[in-house]
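Protein in question quoted in full.
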Amino acid sequence: MSLANNVEFLRRLPKLNAINGFGGYGRNLRPNPPSPLVETAGFGANPGALRMFSFVPAELQQPPALVVVLHGCGQTAAGYDLGAGWSTLARHYGFALLMPEQQPSNNGQGCFNWFNPEDTARDSGEACSIRQMIARMVQDHKVDERRIFVTGLSAGGAMTSVMLATYPELFAAGAIIAGLPFGVASNVREALSGMFQSPARPAAELGDLVRGASSHKGPWPKVSVWHGSADRTVNPANANEIVKQWLDVHDLPPAPMSEGPVDGYPRQLWWNADGETIVESYTITDMAHGTPLGTADNDERYGAQGAFLIEAGISSSYHIANFFGLTE
């Protein structure tokens, strides 16, 4: 199915009018105050026709780290930055920030095309555009190539899965919020099935999808998974499928090695032979579709409530930055 047909299918499907993951996602977004993000043109061939926005604080940790943040449907880079607080975190802890932005000409709902084969293959489409943006950031800001991370919400979370699978050698870690596993959809109908039903698949099948996306043989990125248990846009069972996918890739057992609450919410952990946490999963009890916000461990607040940016008493952005090793 072509992208044009995909978009037309989305427009014609009545039930999507109430589905925040696609149609109507951005209608509640408010005008944003001036953003610290700066746009860069000419970062490469840009086969996915995305826009590149970034923020680099005056003082950077040494060696410099980079976090790539992917917005959800209907959102902009600046809007998601304001809501999730990433530029505030970047300024506070001294890391560079890259925020790619979708264009309406690519997807009428502003979603990254995480389900389109031409946008989700290595060296192709949107995935390649994001890779080229990262190369520009490495070149311009002397980013340590061992300290590159990626995270995203919803369609941006699904695109985070794409980037971790197609360029696993590039990322030290990633964090997927209300997203989907890599490779479970190649058109809109399959995407909707994954969003609403999340059919269970064998772990080895999920792992093979990642292993088949590149010639990389490891080591593999660490992964943090976040999902609200009351999400009606992206079925929470997707979190289990993402965890299964990456446990198989890392050859880790299905049973968590540790379980316990963080800010009142259950977290599961898996670690390697050296005791380093490799996969973690947060279930945000009774939370709907969105990025959870709250006060961080340092008593700071990052971000602001808005559409799909939900006060939950836990700062996902802070905990993700901590998982990336950026809050030391």
In short: Confidence is low (pLDDT under 50) at residues 1-30. The longest helix spans residues 125-141.
